[in-house]
Specification:
about 55 residues; mainly alpha
């Protein structure tokens, strides 16, 4: 079964771009997510951590 899939993928022109593109999208997404998490304000995190304890 793998040989059939491999043969089909070999016949598609430009198929080698898709794994590289997928890796780049994955990497860029998690780098941006990391930057967003580490740049988030400490005051806002503290405020949100108190939400479950609020009486209102």
């Amino acid at each position: 079964m793998f040989e059939q899939v491999k043969h089909n993928l070999e016949t598609i022109a430009g198929v080698e771009v898709f794994p590289i593109l997928s890796l780049l999208i994955f990497f860029i997404f998690f780098v941006c997510l990391g930057i967003w998490v580490f740049s988030y304000g400490k005051e806002k995190i503290e405020e949100m951590s108190q939400i479950p304890l609020d009486e209102n």
